[in-house]
Write a structure and sequence with these properties.
heterodimer; A: 131 residues; mainly alpha; B: 257 residues; alpha+beta; 3 domains; five-stranded antiparallel sheet; 7 helices
């Protein structure tokens, strides 16, 4: 898990160093894209924990979702509808679901490790007794 | 196992590398979003409701300021009216002060008028001088001076006795001789006596010269022959101002002021 965290830090640092910004009128679209990215990212983490990880799904999901979400917000602006709210709600729900799943995954993983440790200890004990 | 079979990629690379890429991109997005917002000014980040509130409060402020502006404009107009009134009041007061100053002889004046000269060989008495000045004022003289002493409401024309010691050669003694001099405000008049009067020269001359008038009677009765000369322009000096020590404005006059 250290490598992705390092990636996040590097990304933030790069952004801070170059301090690039976009025109303020597009700030809302970028915010939606960030939300979509966060959703994909958490989805990827969940998949890792559930041993269902697929790099293609993660990468395509991250970029395509971000672009589509921004496009949806733009379309909403064109139509005079607050369509970005739909994206915010949908991504919000998914983010919370993913966080919940990640929590479950981490707890189960921890329990599994504990159980395996105990099993190994028992095996070790039995083999010694056998001797 | 065949050594040509591609080796299985290391387990951690399977998910850590794509995750790292995604995290990095996410970090970049976050940073961009942060800088966009920090540069975008305050209004761009406000919600529609807040913007509506800001507009409303701005409108309220504008209305309040407009009302204040209108009030201040009205005040300005009022002040300007007062200033104009004050200016006209000042002009009125100033012209009134000038008139009063001329009347009490406080300031020198000039204008057309008459110069009446009485030479030393005539037998002029002090009351003749009073008569002449009276006649001048009756004829519309606005300012009068006698030997450059301004004639005012306080001017006294009088006669004083002068005693001279005269040596009599026959008796070899000094004899006291009395003669009378005319004084104006206590100052002895020297001949020729020059009376200046500011006014319409023709009216003043007619007032003095009509048959049976003052000049006529001076000529016929007392053999005094004053000469009268109309002048286009003559100057009359100011009188010594009177110090009022006892006279103050009566309460009714003070209220009327």
């Amino acid at each position: 898990m250290w490598l992705p965290l390092l990636g996040l830090i590097v990304g933030l640092l790069l952004g801070a160093i170059f301090s690039f910004s976009i025109p303020i009128v597009y700030a809302n679209y970028l915010a939606i894209a960030v939300l979509a990215g966060l959703d994909s990212l958490l989805g990827g983490w969940r998949a890792v924990l559930e041993k269902d990880f697929d790099a293609n799904i993660l990468l395509s999901g991250f970029f395509v979702n971000a672009i589509l979400a921004a496009a949806l917000a733009w379309l909403g602006d064109m139509l005079g509808l607050d369509l970005y709210l739909a994206a915010v709600i949908a991504f919000g729900i998914r983010i919370f679901k993913n966080i919940g799943a990640i929590r479950h995954g981490i707890i189960f993983q921890h329990r599994e490790r504990q159980a395996r440790k105990k099993e190994q200890q028992a095996m070790h004990y039995l083999s010694k007794e056998h001797e | 196992m065949n050594s040509m079979t591609p080796s299985k990629p290391k387990r951690y690379l399977l998910w850590q590398v794509p995750m790292t890429v995604v995290f990095l991109a996410f970090g970049l997005l976050m940073a961009a979003q942060y800088y966009t917002h920090s540069e975008g000014g305050s209004l761009a980040n406000e919600s529609t409701a807040n913007l509506a509130m800001i507009i409303k409060s701005g409108n309220d402020n504008k209305q309040a300021l407009e009302a204040e502006l209108a009030a201040l404009k009205a005040e300005l107009a009022e002040s300007q009216a007062l200033v104009e009134k004050g200016e006209s009041l000042y002009a009125t007061m100033s012209s009134r002060i000038d008139n009063l100053s001329i009347a009490i002889g406080d300031i020198p004046v000039e204008g057309s008028g008459l110069v009446i000269t009485v030479t030393g060989d005539s037998n002029l008495m002090y009351y003749d001088l009073i008569d002449i000045t009276n006649e001048l004022f009756v004829s519309g003289a606005e300012a009068v001076s006698i030997n450059d002493i301004r004639f005012t409401s306080h001017t006294q024309i009088a006669e004083q006795a002068r005693f001279n010691e005269v040596f009599d050669e026959e008796t070899q003694t000094y004899n006291s001789v009395t003669h009378y001099v005319i004084t104006v405000d206590g100052e002895e008049l020297r001949y020729p006596i020059i009376i200046k009067a500011v006014g319409d020269p023709q009216t003043l001359a007619k007032g003095l010269e009509y048959p049976g008038g003052i000049i006529d009677s001076l000529n016929t009765l007392y053999s005094v022959y004053p000469t009268i000369k109309p002048m286009e322009r003559l100057e009359i000096p100011a009188a010594t101002p009177v110090a009022y020590r006892h006279a103050v404005l009566a309460p009714a006059a003070a209220e009327g002021k």
